[in-house]
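Notebook entry, structure prediction.
Reason for the run: the old model in the group folder had no record of what sequence produced it. Starting over properly, with the input documented here first.
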Amino acid sequence: MDRLRPQLKKPSFPISEGLRSYLQRYRRERALPVTYDRLRHFTEAAPLVDASGKPTLWETVVYDRLEMESLNEDLKQIYALIRVDGDLSVMRHLYVDRVDFCAFGNSAPFRIRIVNSFNDNADYYYIKRADASRVYGLELEHVLSPNRLNYLTHGPTLVEEHIAGLPGDVFIQRWLDSPELRPIRIAKELVKFNERCFVRLLGDMRSYNFVFVVTPDFEGAQVRIRAMDFDQQSYEGRMNFYRPQFFRENQPLALFCVQHLNLETARQYQREEQVLMLQRAAVTEERLSFLLREMSADPLSPPENLEMLRESLAVHYDWPEFLDCGSMGGLVRESLAAIRVRVRDQDRAAPFGLE
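New structure, fully documented this time:
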């Protein structure tokens, strides 16, 4: 199993005029009362610990008193925008409990903790630097996966809703062998998640970059895996960087699949997800075409990464059309075209952890 790591820190790419036009058309671009740069002007920061008292990567930040009073209302307004299209009348009982900052990672996010004063229930959202790679990743997830995402942009600012679930590394430690979960359902979802990432070229899906969502059902719990980090959308040149099975952190999951799935069943689940992705693409054909057209016009990766990846994909799919692609957006389009032909011809490809 390969030991995959990002070779260099990925640069941030600005949102182009074409992508901005797409975001405006689909109401992702909205006027926001708080920008990322405004949040950077905090006066103090204190380390944040978790429930067990262990330090985290986050710091709680403090602002000047007058600024904080203004921020409280403006941050509530943003929360209302992503939850109820800006209707503050149903959110007067909410308050901003805390603003946290994390210098780790590409987006250096702020996390806003919103609390319901009636029942102390908390929710979160994030304000980050807008990076075109991440925006394309968010939108491809919204269009091609079973998950819907709420996010907004405003100039160089990106606002994202919180994606709830058990982080993959926590799930491996505490839930992977739980008698409350059926192993075959976990293994099935791992195959499907691996295929979604690979086809739409979402990279760096190590265990702490995705979450498990466990939903009780009348015949045991159902499991779904959701990506929560989209910084590495279509940047790396190594093909296996887009296949979660090859990360060291995910080795327990890959071995779990080998233990609980035979090859034929795994291929069935892989094919199911390919068909579902093609159906989602057909339903959103106009939107997806617009998105991939703008993505194809954006330089999201160095030429050497693009060349390495297109050659690997051409061999993997036995699909020479990849070699004619001049952009990462073009590779995503060809990935969908390749699986469309494979589904039609009932060809077979290797699934999660079974190569």
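Summary: Strands lie at 44-49, 55-62, 94-101, 110-116, 122-129, 151-154, 157-161, 166-167, 210-215, 222-227.
The old model has been moved to the deprecated folder.
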